[in-house]
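Summary for the funding panel

The consortium committed to producing paired sequence-structure records for every protein in the target list. Below we show the first two records in order, beginning with the earlier of the two.
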Amino acid sequence: MKHLLLVALAAGGLAGQSLELSASAGAFRMGGNSLGYLGYGVGDVPSNEMIFSGGAALSFRFTYNSSRWLGHEFGAARGANTLRAPIGSTGILFDVPTTTWTGFYDLLLYAVPEESRFRPFLAAGANYSTINPRYPQVFGTGYERKFGFNYGGGVKIPVHRYFLLRVEYREYATPKPFNLIAQSGLLRQREISAGVGLVF
């Protein structure tokens, strides 16, 4: 009886193993998007605030589902964002197109097994973000890489043995880049996306 139980548990674990490759598109929305100030104005008051705006998001994920309830996900997300700041004393706003690459690992916790029609999950893990303004000389800053953490969740919808749809939300939190004046808090990139995946 003991041996039958062990075989059943092993079979249940193997049944949950699968690989997924997926691609998603959506948008980044920024929290804590004031990066600080470029200099000082009258009375040594910080001036020329730099604002980091969200934009389109494209992400790719590789997922190893190690059991019916747990998965491990590695991926990269590309954001098309904007750095905005007033230039000089004119107050004119200048927008610099900015590319953000975020690499990440997440542990996935599923609410239901893989044969379910809707499969909600929670995700949490570590990430890094590389922020690269197209014209770094405008603000005197080049690209910067920051390490942080992320969390979120979503739902996977199997539509075939080898295909699924997925909708999700992730928040990537990192220290703010460029070491500007009067920085505080974390930069939070909030990804809302939907996509398709292949199951192996």
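The next record, for a separate protein in the list, is shown here:
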Amino acid sequence: MRCAPILALAIAACGAGSPETRFETQPAKNLVGAWDATLSLVRPYQLELNEPAAKRICGTIAFVANHQARGGSSQTGDSTHLGVYDMDLALLGLDWLGDNGFPEAVATFVDDYGTPVNTVGDSVAIVLNPGSRERIVLLGRYGVEEIRGGWTAQSSRGTAGGSFSMTPHVDARNQSPSCSEFH
């Protein structure tokens, strides 16, 4: 019994520093808020009749925390974040059914193999329009002040894909050049 206080003191003395110090050195991995997003098309659908209007689009994705992740709807499942987006996916040849549904986005933290994890990880999976017949999945990894990765869309026309990046939303007055310059 006399060893317990000594053991506790030894563990405290050998700790990695205060929690504040540890958290300050890690990049923020919270999706809550607005993000500036860029999607670039690398592989258009194989069965596409027309060339997509653009090879790159920009827009905004905004998320809130899903406080009811456990037992949520079948579409949101255990997603850690729920959101909406403002991007013209049709310019990339996506949204081919002209779905007039709500532009929904759901996000889940994943491991390196795309398997959902219960804690905040270095990777995230974002699904655009999870209830639609055209599944668009963005798999990305956190960097300093950004998320980068690849996206895949699957439909009856085949599989399309490309790359994406997301950065925290900037003030509209100081925004970078528009995506229209990259068509």
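Regarding this second record: Residues 30-182 form a domain with the Lipocalin fold (CATH 2.40.128.120). Residues 37 and 166 are 4 Å apart (CA to CA).
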